[in-house]
Amino acid sequence: MSEFVAVSLSVNGVRYDVAIRPWRTLLEVLRETLAMTGTKRSCGEGQCGACTVLLDGDAVNACLYLAVEAQGREILTIEGPAGGDPVLEQIQASFANNGAVQCGFCTPGMVMITKDLLSHNDAPSEDEIRDALVGHLCRCTGYVQIVEAIRDAAGALARRAGD
Amino acid sequence: MTYLMRLPKFEYLGPRSLAEVCGAIAGPSGNEVMLLAGGTDAILQMRRRERVPRRVVGLKGVAELDFVREEADGGVAIGAMTTLRSLVHDPRIAARYDLLRETAAQIGGHELRNVATIGGNIAGALPCADLPPALMTLGARIRLSSARGDRWLALDEFFPEFGRTVARADELLSEIGLPRPAPRSGGTYLKFHDRQSMDMTVVGVSAWVALDDEGRTCRDLRLAYANSAPTVFRAKRAEAVLRGQALTDEGLEAVAEAACGESRPRTSWRANGAYRLELIAALTRRAIRRAWDKAASQGGAKS
Q1: pLDDT, average across residues B81-98
Q2: Rounded CA separation B19/B28 (Å)
Q3: Across the interface, do B2 and A44 touch by the CB < 8 Å criterion?
Q4: Partner-chain contact A22 B10, CB within 8 Å
Q5: Does pTM top 0.90 for this prediction?
Q6: B185-192: strand order across its sheet
Q7: What is the DSSP string of A1-36?
Q8: What's the complex ipTM?
Q9: A64 and B43 in contact by Cβ < 8 A?
Q10: Chain B hits for A47, Cβ within 8 Å
Q11: Could you tell me the domains of chain B?
């Protein structure tokens, strides 16, 4: 009997039909099978947030999610802007403009949790921003700029919505 | 280098209904089959090879286990696959079981709460799980389902020893039932841990208080503890100390002392046993005070 199972994954709006082993995590399949290495692997236990992706709009740790269980759901990764997501593009611009990217390793996860936050709350307070980041570690310790970048992105998106 | 390790090989089943789940775990399969709810604990346990199942039965596709339903008797029924995020945001939970909302909100970050479930947090049988103490003090009952039928039991009776539940290999925890909130009652869950809500609970205390009709003395007190013994447990002797009495410093001290007497905290790299006893005493006093204030601020109708 073959170990492989046929799975259809929808990533950034594109459907991928892949044959995977059922014990592969979503993180492994994104990085190794689909060669989308923007989503980072770090702690492997849901502590650091480097592997955060959105499933049907909600942030999850891809290292703690079986790829077979992501079937039938819309997966959004940091490669999303290639698909033209204007909110993700604004968040990334705000991160760049506010010096929120140092070594950059935590940035994809930070950007994805920001997308989740701003899609549920278009004017988050500083406490709400910091609460959203609770599952994310930046070992360059640049949290102040990250919080500023998120506030900047929220403001820019609100202004755009008001135009 | 645990973080680099693949999960062990397993066969995966993704049933779509409770009946299909019961069929998949029926028969003499024993520990070779693992139920996977949110997976935020179970996937780590597999990565560490603490659990090496031959077959994994994933529950995420079983929509009928994801619900919050108001019952005719004034209670609430919660499906086992309801996420912690849903518990935090459900207005029926917030209005009547604020203790449960508050406890769920203290677990992990957004990514974890979007995936972790109430059923997984209970059935994992971890002594550090935060929801079981809160649910025990709310008087929760649980439904175990199997191809043979259903049975209900008090959550207090679910954990016979470390890491184990009384569920048989062919049963799954399918539903949690909460009784109608008592008048003038309120509860709180306090936990000690290192990194906001991201680190493992060192000690957790849930206190629930119901006051008399005048709101002056204690009609009922319930206390349950995380990581203070090999299993989550109710401290029933400590619960009896304040019954019928007003709140005093001496009374609180006596409850805290009794609770320490019923605890068996272990020493680990996180904290030694003596330190955990200090935490149990301090958090017990603090939690009872807060629960008492919440109960006193409630009218006759809500929890």
Answers
A1: 96
A2: 17
A3: yes
A4: yes
A5: yes
A6: B185-192, B203-211, B218-226, B233-234
A7: --S-EEEEEEETTEEEEEEE-TT-BHHHIIIIIS--
A8: 0.95
A9: yes
A10: 198
A11: 10-58 (no CATH), 63-178 (3.30.465.10), 185-297 (3.30.390.50)
